[in-house]
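@channel sequence for tomorrow's demo:
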Amino acid sequence: MPEIAIGPEPLTRDQVVDVARRGAAVALSPAAERGIAATREHIAALAADPTATYGVSTGFGALAVRRIPAELRAAMQRSFVRSHAAGAGAEVESEVVRAMALLRLRTIASGRTGVRPATAHALVALLNAGITPVVHEHGSLGCSGDLAPLAAVALALTGEGEAHDATGARGRAADLLAAAGITPVVLAEKEGLALTNGTDGMLGMLVLALHDLTRLVEVADVTAAMSVEALLGTDRVFAADLQRLRPHPGQAVSAARMRAALADSPIVASHRGPECSLVQDAYSLRCAPQVHGAARDTLAHATGVADRELAAAIDNPVVLDDGRVESNGNFHGAPLGYALDFLAIAVADVASMAERRTDRMLDVARSHGLPPFLADDPGVDSGHMIAHYTQAGIVSELKRIAVPASVDSLPTSAMQEDHVSLGWSAARKLRRALDGLTEVLAVELLTAARALDLRAPLHPGPVTGAVRDLLREHVPGPGPDRHLAPEIAAAAALIRTGAVHTATAHLPDGSRR
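structure tokens (generated this afternoon):
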């Protein structure tokens, strides 16, 4: 994988994913080197100026009223990072920490923060060595930046705290830095703020979520098509001329994907004639493009938010082109928090519709000839009855997770920080929601594939059949009850690893919309 140059230009979402998940190496661009050095010279001049500058020669937050003498400023920066690395709870995932460190580096590379070149190089080395500081679940209110999480990264740069090495082993940060040949940083004026005062945790999780949810909505189109086919539904409602009557772009893409997935299906063809008495399918079948399409359009909105944030330089105070160092409120996480919450709503609704389709396939009164619960010997066997319970429990949890975090606020820092975004909390719950949606779609995939098998001697279409066959490489077909949890896990793994996406990569993807 090629090395990624970090400079004043925005990173792409794919670059963030490559560094966070795939360990891509990074390096500062020449433009970044020049900008960082020039801005640091300006900060050094301000540090010697008798006029107080926030974060350079003063305390922080509600303590900004105190002027700090030069001989205490290194201790102040060290104390700042130590005190702000106050997280609690479970460890945050490695990919989130790496994304967060990368995005902080990108803001430093913008030349707006005043960080010294040596500190920026240490952050580059940390990423390239695969050292991941231990960051805890709780500690960010999504305002004044993701303070505690970013402070944990800064603390590791100074050789304190704990981290994981490239193999995942946990140890003292000082030992891991030494093993990688990285000299711990002694922070100078402004650097404590510059390393912690950003929206990088929220943004990193948003970028990763956009990547994952895009794939999951594509999978949902396919599992919905499989369910339509299994339930003897019609593909006529997905016709392009019907979709054009309501010109939402995401809806058009989802409908096109479902049409393509159902093309040339012998099962669908078997009930197209005048003898078929079915007039309209249930909403969970007929309206799938409308719901999945709305999720796609929500993704498009959130992608715009993420791309603008990837072009931003978030710090307080920030160094402007004319040399002014100004306080600002750009660290407030509201734009990200709203987008993250909006995505969680879409996730819950896509999952809710998938659960309704699953339920129909299991209900003998509504499944058009399928056995109760798709059981081999109903009564002796329970089939997928309890798999649906699992799915329903997850969907109920997703509805609770969809309650917005960003409508909440709790004042802190002696009322100096009297309104916060809770965007970090929105991001954390969205990650849990994406895991839940994956499991929900796995149950629908399992159920729809079994139902398609039970329609024999009729065969599914080429696309839905290919997905069914992929699953059958890991999960046997219909038969007496088996231990079902491993089969749900196998279906979920096919979704998480992208195998289902790969099997349907030729379907329309909306890239031309």
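heads up for whoever presents: The CA atoms of residues 102 and 477 lie 45 Å apart.
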